[in-house]
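Is heme C placement plausible here? Inputs below.
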Amino acid sequence: MLSVIGKLPSISILLTTGLFCFFASCDSGDIHESEYIHDEGVTLSATFRLNYPELYPDNYNFTFGAFTDAESSPLVSVNLPRPDDEGNIDIRLENIPEEATRIRLCFTDMGRQVKYTFFEQTIDRTSSGDIILPEKEIDLLEYNRIQQLVFQQYNCVSCHQGTSGSANLLLTEGESYRQLVNHPSTRSEKLRVVPYEPDSSFLLDVVTQSEVISYPHTGLITRNDDLELLRCWIGKGCPEN
Ligand code: HEC
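Reply from A.M.:
I modeled the complex. Tokens:
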């Protein structure tokens, strides 16, 4: 109790100083500054339900943010917290500036650049006031995520493209699924990918064990999240959505 009373004078000094500074800046006639203080922008609230919450990332920022059409880093953003056991997340994005045209739920890297977008919507400015999005289901296990964050991001497609590709394997968009799932390997007795059986799938051996092919692929996939994504996708039976 004593310590609380002891702190009171310093708090009131801080408050007085703060107020003084506030009025001082008004007195200076700096109109832009005072406009900025009063106009805090729109607030947007959303509820997401995440399917496969176990795929919540460790190596990416899971970002809910407001963007312009041109920029691939957000004007304002918040990190999506880990979901509860049902995968539910309530989130608010505050102070969305006027120039923002769309909101995105996405993975960003350390430089705040978008790596993968799960959900995107233009901001409806026709009604004034705060925005509440209808509840939205988000699938963290999308085949397109594998295509973009594994085969494109780690440049697998630089060798596994063209008419046949290295080891007769194409990992390009539109081809990769067909060339992997239940497909014989050119280098192993195992199939490339066996749905529900990560341990029987040669693809996982190739990217995690250096001795299984003559050109080692270990270390090509640098984020553990992306390896786990492959493993989870196979374990769940290789959904193609
Ligand atoms: C620099 C070229 C190159 C890159 C990049 C590359 N690969 Fe390969 N890949 C090869 C070669 C060459 C082989 C065959 C090696 C051998 O003969 O043992 C191969 C073999 C494979 C196989 C075995 C194919 C089979 O029939 O079983 C898989 C699976 C594979 N790569 C997946 C990938 C993935 C996934 C990536 C990206 C993370 C990747 N590769 C990146 C060149 C590449």
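Short version: Confidence is low (pLDDT under 50) at residues 1-38.
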